[in-house]
Write a structure and sequence with these properties.
287 residues, alpha/beta, Rossmann fold, eight-stranded mixed β-sheet, 12 helices, 8 strands
């Protein structure tokens, strides 16, 4: 009898863990989005950057899912989501995913391109957003990128469009200011290498299919964002990202900026403990 009770308890525990930590595919908005959900509480969505996928949030996943209903997904064209074939609006994909998951409001945490998606979404659908954390964010409508930044992108696009996405092109991208890790541990370095290797290179081979946020641009919409915003930027990130961070701080009414010392563009991977502390402190603070 005791053994039977123990087995029943183990089965119940296993079912509960699986129920709280799930992954699936959502067929929404003309594509298929891979997503993962873990934990309970207020919804919090992690959104990755270009050429990456959900795994960039590994160092945050178990930490934040203890406090929130954590959601991470592969943006269209990346990871295990459907490939992109035409220009598309990733903001509408996010809205469709939240509708699919029956999430009325969520905190949004976006890195690079993901930060752009989070800000654009908050400007267009403010009632669906609680707080926003933009991490080393790029921004459509912003034109003051440095010559080095433009040269990096032009180089990788030129290589990929002529020769495809192979070891040499991946190595160039990994050495670039947008993916270089400065202080990350070996696990994060290996994780990033695997993510880049698994990426198909579509957006570099054919830039026409890159996300299109439409008009007005996110830059033009910043003043409409009324949600609390935390701007995180790595100390060693490319100068363009620091310029964008200053604009966000100046134009988004309820914003604050923090620099993560010693980190590069992927500050959540470079300095995960610092990132997690700053993000959780911001999310716990009452508006």
């Amino acid at each position: 009898m005791r053994l039977s009770t123990l087995l029943s308890f183990c089965l119940l525990l296993t079912w509960t863990v699986r129920a709280q930590n799930s992954s699936s595919i959502a067929a929404v908005n003309g594509t298929k989005l891979y997503y993962e959900v873990a934990g309970r509480g207020e919804a919090l969505v992690f959104i990755h950057s270009i050429a990456l996928d959900t795994r960039v949030w590994d160092a945050q996943w178990s930490v934040f899912s203890k406090k929130f209903k954590a959601i991470r997904y592969d943006v269209r064209g990346y990871g295990q989501s459907g490939r992109a074939h035409d220009p598309h609006d990733p903001t509408e994909d996010l809205k469709a995913l939240l509708d699919y998951l029956k999430v009325e409001k969520a905190h949004l945490v976006g890195q690079g391109m993901g930060g752009n998606i989070a800000l654009n979404f908050a400007a267009k659908y403010p009632d669906r957003v609680l707080k926003i954390i933009s991490v080393d964010t790029t921004l459509d409508g912003f034109a003051d990128y440095t010559a080095d930044f433009n040269a990096t992108l032009n180089q990788i696009v030129d290589l990929a469009s002529h020769r495809g996405w192979h070891d040499e092109e991946q190595a160039v991208w990994l050495r670039s200011p947008l993916t270089r890790l400065y202080t990350a541990d070996d696990r994060a370095i290996i994780n990033l290498s695997e993510i880049i290797a698994d990426y198909h290179g579509d957006h570099f081979i054919n830039p026409r299919i890159n996300p299109d946020f439409g008009s007005p641009s996110t830059l033009q919409l910043l003043s409409k964002i009324q949600n609390p915003l935390l701007i995180l930027v790595g100390e060693k990130d490319e100068e363009s990202m620091h310029r964008i961070a200053k604009i966000l701080e100046a134009q988004v009414p309820y914003s604050q900026k923090r620099i993560i010392k010693g980190a590069g563009h992927l500050s959540n991977m470079d300095k995960p403990k610092n990132f997690n502390h700053l993000a959780l402190s911001f999310l716990r603070k009452k508006p």
